[in-house]
Amino acid sequence: MAVLLVLLVLLLTEPGFSQTNNHDNDTNDRIGYFCGRNAVTSLPNFVKNRNTTLSDLRMQLLSKRVVYAKAQALSAGDPVFAAAQCRNYLSVDRCVACFDAGVSELTNCLATNGYVIFDNCFIR
């Protein structure tokens, strides 16, 4: 009787799959993406602050060889605060490649802040 119950449970359940952890995943598949709704006061100031912040994040990831970085640019109004994090098993090159893919997505948020989540990293 117990064997039949186990077989019935196995037949009624569906298998689940998780992300592979073989450290060879270079796909940087996008999981989530959001552009904010609050418009900026001055588009040139916002773009300058955004670009400065993203450049600072990239330099931190490269030079400090870390998987988490945060930065801010506050000049001339429209402040930008940002953070980036990669999975801890990624090499620095793969982390920066994921970051670069995220930046190319975030620049589509023309005049607002946003975030992007990949399977290997996120940027906010």
The CATH topology of the domain at 39-124: Killer Toxin P4, Chain A
Radius of gyration: 20 Å
Give the overall form: elongated
Class from helix and strand fractions:
alpha+beta
Number of helices, where a helix is a run of at least 4 consecutive DSSP H or I residues: 3
| CATH C-level category of the domain at 39-124 | Alpha Beta
Low-confidence stretches: none
Describe the structure.
It contains 3 helices and 5 strands; from the N terminus they run αβαββαββ. It has 124 residues and is α+β, with helices and mostly antiparallel strands. The protein has a domain at 39-124: Gnk2 domain, C-X8-C-X2-C motif (Killer Toxin P4, Chain A). A 5-stranded antiparallel sheet has the order 1-4-5-3-2, covered by helices on one side. Helix 2 packs antiparallel against helix 3. The radius of gyration is 20 Å and the shape is elongated. It starts with a helix and ends with a strand. The mean pLDDT is 85.
